[in-house]
Design brief:
Layout (H helix, E strand, L loop, with lengths): L1 H11 L6 H12 L6 H10 L6 H14 L2 E7 L2 E6 L7 E5 L5 E4 L2 H13 L10 E4 L2 H6 L5
Parallel strand pairs: 3-5
Antiparallel strand pairs: 1-2, 3-4
């Protein structure tokens, strides 16, 4: 289904689903969690695809624009992504020391956001919440920020 959605998205922009874009799409949806673009690139190259690094990054940007993929956070090593199509909305807590990402969902936060939008006559369509700090493990170790 994600291929059909992406193909329609590309068609609306006068673009085609090339072999390289299809390889990136397949690899992105084979991840079960968060990933870095460089890791994605090396997995694609390892699978025999001839996709260039630039092609991987451009396709990843298109996937974000299409709504199939979300940029989760920016780290000192670059951006971290995840595919969101077919998954329930969630937010993230990110450890500044180890870079770990904890996913969570809060009905209270969702309700509060809807209430705030209503109070301001605003029609919200999406949001991203990222809480930065220290995970339990790093708190115990006294680790410094990355």
């Amino acid at each position: 289904m994600e291929q059909k959605i992406f193909q329609e998205f590309l068609g609306e922009r006068g673009l085609k689903l090339t072999k390289e874009r299809a390889a990136v799409l397949r690899e992105v949806f084979s991840f079960h969690g968060h990933f870095e673009p460089e890791h994605l690139y090396f997995r694609i190259r390892g699978s025999g695809s001839k996709a260039s690094r630039a092609s991987v990054y451009r396709t990843l940007s298109l996937l974000v624009e299409s709504g199939l993929v979300e940029k989760v956070t920016r780290t000192d090593r670059g951006n971290v992504y995840e595919h969101t199509y077919g998954h329930r909305h969630h937010d993230h807590m990110i450890c500044d020391a180890c870079g770990g990402i904890i996913e969570f969902y809060s009905e209270k936060l969702e309700s509060l956001q809807a209430e705030i939008c209503e109070q301001n006559s605003f029609s919200g369509s999406s949001h991203t919440l990222e809480i930065r700090g220290r995970c339990e493990t790093c708190q115990g170790k006294g680790l410094e920020d990355r």
